[in-house]
Amino acid sequence: MSGNRISDYGFLADGLTGALVGRDGSVDWWCPLRFDSPSVFARMLDDGGGHWAIRPEADFEVEREYLDETLVLRTVFTTGEGTVAVTDALALEPGARGHEIGRRSPGMLLRTVEALSGRVPMMMSFAPRFEYGRVTAYLTVDGQEVTATAGAATLTLTSSVPVHRDHIDVSARFTVEAGQRASFALAYSSTYGDRDRRPADTDVPAALADAVAGWRSWLANHDYRGRYRDLVRRNSLVLQGLTYAPGGAVVAAATTSLPERIGGDRNYDYRYAWLRDFSLTMRALWVAACPDETSRLFDWVAKSVGRVTLEPVPIMYGLEGERDLTERSVDTLGGYAGSKPVLLGNAAWRQRQSDVLGETLDAAWLLRDYLDPTDEPVCRLLHSLADQAAATWHLPDSGMWELRDMERQYVSSKACCWVALDRAVRFGERIGSREDVARWAGARSDVREAILAQGWNAEVGAYTGAFGSDKLDASVLTLPLWGFLPATDPRMRATIERIEQQLTEDGLVRRWDGDPAAFLPCSFWLVDCLALVGEHERATRMFESLVGRGNDLGLFAEQFDPRTGEQLGNFPQALSHMALINTAWRLTETAPGGIPAGVYTSTEGEK
User: Which of 381, 383, 482, 490 has the most other CB atoms within 10 Å of its CB?
Assistant: First the structure.
């Protein structure tokens, strides 16, 4: 594994996939075709996984930032000889702007080196390893152009400085003085395809400038005016970076197999689209004032889910709606910090997770003024999800934590079935007949009565994770967020207090007692609940503390180890960034004095 920790990485995106660049200037993760395609760089999971590094030869200190309102990364290296800036981006289609960015990106990594002061010797190391380190490429060097081919994939590297072949890799040594630049472009292409992605004629500075303009044009469509405006806009960029633009699917994270616990085996592949994340992303994008593509994104869901029966709705999909995500291990990579197995695919695609029914219908209700629910595929989807909630709410499921040991009667799953039925009743005859609405309303009452009677544990003094359980579970913090119970309800208030007392350390919330690390989304949910019970100042302090735990670029993984301060889990994690955005809006809604004039409310989805 490289010397980079999870939190040392910066994230680049182009609407098709993402790349991770360490503080040491090394691209240690890139799956060029799309997020879930085979890697060409995977050193973050094993030293032999491949990388592309550009950095000073001498020791250096690092400062870095994204260029304003972009996912273009600028890293400044300071050495004893001088200072250089390395600017990195994934190229966008030339001229693409606004919501068109990312749909036809060329599959190209762009890197420039600019000397800011002094005279700095630099090094470049290019070591591609295809298909998760399984394949070493055939290399050819023609002047300052390198071609690496392995099976169906070809990489073409062009450099403004001379390069040298070192057996199976390529390197360069060059020096830049103040005012001088060096440029590099690395393009992916199909070995046998007819797409011409060769970067030989690429003007790298111009392509970087176009990427900057593309990202800024996308963000210009968003006019969030609540609290923490800059923070919300920055995090909405990260969510857009995690979006597969051709269809609109949002990946849970850009990576696979970054562990929840160092040395543990819960190292799952998150490069797929979960319905839960789709729903929360829609809410986050609505908060960030960009519901423009609602119909397109719901169309993706309708096409991916297909016709719903009483069989469990698949909770996750490939980026173009694929169903079969069969899990398998990769024996060529040793895993991050030795955490094995390294996994491709995710067996959770077979689970029943009833919460996705409510989350999808809730997103539709929130965005109903931008979504035409009489559109036949979407109307059919919402109707069918409500029917499944009515028919199956009483069944056990795997819950939102996707535990693989056994199914349980999870309280949060039941509450989301209630949400599905409640939103369906609110939609009324826009999605069903009068008889359907009456049936949904009856089932809604049944679910509510069951949760209130069986979810509460008087000995614990809280709603526990599952019916009949005495174990606390932070998933029940979502009950007031979905509107099932007010946070001020005495039992709900007691539950919030118990979770804060027993599962929380320094503002970081574990999902359950014994969870190896704190789960960042749960920590944001606790802030939401505190704001809803009126503890606005404490909620604000806790929120700002959580925000400060991101890396130097404001990026979050899934979990955080309170003992070591390390981020853990796949990176960057969409759910963490969604939760941050939604909590920023919650603090706007609940601020003393109410919502400022001219800012719309999130409870009714209206401007």
Answer: 381
